[in-house]
Protein: ATP-dependent 6-phosphofructokinase
Organism: Syntrophobacter fumaroxidans
Amino acid sequence: KRRVGILTGGGDCAGLNAVIRGITKSAVNNFDMEVVGFYDGFLGLIEKRFTILTFEMVSGILTQGGTILGSSNKANPFEHRVREGGQERCVDVSEECVALCEDLAMDALICVGGDGTMTIAEKLSRKGVNVIGLPKTIDKDLAETDITFGFDTARTVATEAIDRIHTTAQSHHRVMLIEVMGRNAGWLALEAGIAAGADIVLIPEIPYSIKEIIGVARRRSRFGRQFSIVVVAEGAAPVGGTQTVHRIVKDSPDPIRLGGISHRIATEIEEQTGIECRVTILGHVQRGGTPTPLDRLLATRFAVKAMELVEERCYNHMVAFQGGETVPVPIEKVAGRQRLVPLDSPLIKTARSVGTSLG
Ligand code: F6P
């Protein structure tokens, strides 16, 4: 029987199970193929841990958050960490991974993930593995695609949270800061901020000034609005300052998440104005739970398209969403690239037009 492999890599998000289900149903129904599911992203490939996905295993998972296969945002066949004699070192185990793909006689390996996953997939493709990428991330920062699945759910969760914080901000006459994820990109903060009517949205693409934030809070106060809503992207940084997340710490192969930039902003506002501030860091709540209908739909469309590409032997491409269609783009155009919010984005214009300060 012909086979196709699938793994879910990087940080999880809503819609992963919808993709696993979509791939399995399409492979079995339309192409009479077997689906090899690797556990915990590339770690399963490295450690030879996999299963054959059956209809029973994927039945009823469309609406479930997380991934039944598990994920890992640390595993990398080209830099696999091993501990020996209390010491950790990185070894390249990619040849073994390639050999496993050959042994399993898979037509292709479908890698579902963000830029880290696409970068590894592209390197594997150069070693002869047929790969297909599927774009997943709440950050929406993958190149070549208008949207990634997982984003809409995170945007919905963040918007609802900001709405709730709005009412308590009003009651207590406070400046409320809500920190959202997004890594080095401001998509999530900007879109949730506009949707929830935030007064200020701070994104990594536009360095913020405390003076401007305080100016907005004071102006609102003069006009009788005794509270302000500030949405802070976790990667936001002050003018002339550096980001506090995803900085590469010396001697560590991993970007270390330091986070909590909004605490620093809140402290500065309180010290300079005496206005009471409160901070809410939404964190992983944005990644969990049931996917929105849009994410279920996107994930299913991506899955079906991936299987079509397998059938057409259109390998080493990522399925992208462009102008309402699912289209293949060469994976090397995606690997190692990040899509930040362009400064001429209509979203930035929209925010400013309705009086939202971008710091
Ligand atoms: O890339 C997805 C993401 O949720 C980012 O928004 C966030 O910075 C990061 O992953 C958090 O990673 P972890 O789950 O390892 O803390």
In short: The chain has eleven helices and 15 strands. The radius of gyration is 22 Å.
